[in-house]
Amino acid sequence: MKKLLGIVVLGLLLSGNAYAGKYEMEQAAKTIPGVADAAFQGSSSFWVVMSNPNAGHDFDYYGSMLCNGGQQNFGVAKGYTITFWNAYTKKPIKKFRCY
Predict the structure, then answer these.
(1) CB contact at 8 A, 80 and 98
(2) Integer angstrom CA distances of residue 53 from 9, 34, 40
(3) Which class is domain 2-98?
């Protein structure tokens, strides 16, 4: 019984850190030039709203940077899709699989 309680407590502590890492990653993404907003939508989707979607951004580069940087700098595990959104049309521009 003590072992089960220890596992539950450890799981809760680690899940809190995952959310903290996601929050930190969201805040960091918002500092990237051209990014108006960024937020996780559940556990399998990270949305990035572009303030100037027609500025010639390299979305594959941004996706790779967010995916790998999120894991290395904030401990956010891979296993989600990054969707870049047009702030004006409210439509997706590009999807990047972070796996």
Answers:
(1) yes
(2) 44, 8, 20
(3) alpha beta
Name residue, tokens 């969201």: 26
Strand 92-98 with 80-86, pairing: antiparallel
Q: What's the rounded Cα separation, in Å, for the pair 91 and 79? A: 23
Alpha-carbon gap, residue 54 to 56, rounded angstroms: 6
* pLDDT tens, residue by residue, 2-32: 343 333 333 333 444 445 799 999 999 999 9
Whole-model pTM: value is 0.79
Q: Give domain limits for the chain.
A: 2-98
Those residues whose C-beta lies under 8 Å from the C-beta of residue 97, and which sit 6 or more positions away, are 81, 82
List the alpha helices (DSSP H) in the chain. 2-29, 59-74
Helix-helix angle 2-29:59-74, to 10 degrees: 140
Largest CA distance in the chain: 58
